[in-house]
Amino acid sequence: MAKILLVDDDESTLRLVYAMLVSGGHTVETATNGQEAMDILKERHVAVVVTDLRMPTVNGLRLIRELRSAGDTVPIVAISGANRDQLLLAQDYGANAALVKPVDRKELLKVVRMALDDTRDAWSNAWIHPEFGSVGER
Prior knowledge:
CATH class: Alpha Beta
Distance between the termini: 28 Å
Strand content: 15-25%
Number of strands: 7
Shape: globular
Strand order of the largest sheet: 2-1-3-4-5
Number of domains: 1
CATH architecture: 3-Layer(aba) Sandwich
CATH superfamily: Response regulator
Radius of gyration: 13 Å
CATH topology: Rossmann fold
Number of helices: 5
Order of helices and strands: EHEHEHEHEHEE
């Protein structure tokens, strides 16, 4: 279906989310921090970026901010098990959606499908969170 860049420094989460995305028919490239992701994005086009927020070197919030500051409109899905406020901040920085870890396969694939089907403007207020319901206005 689509090429997705998955960014996470935790090896077990990386493997798990990778398997979820591949099971949904996607091609997945991985990076272990935001700097590695930015380097990959300079070289290759991806349809969606799925990124953790807490990582060494360049964290996910900075990755999102850098991409949006550069005018990149690639859809971004933020994932984090840490602080829910960081997920809200990620959306403020330009993430299209946010998911709490552990990530639910069905919700992840739903968000990725939305990212592939819609433009950034069409769902700029989308918020995905298991506790607040599925897709809807923040």
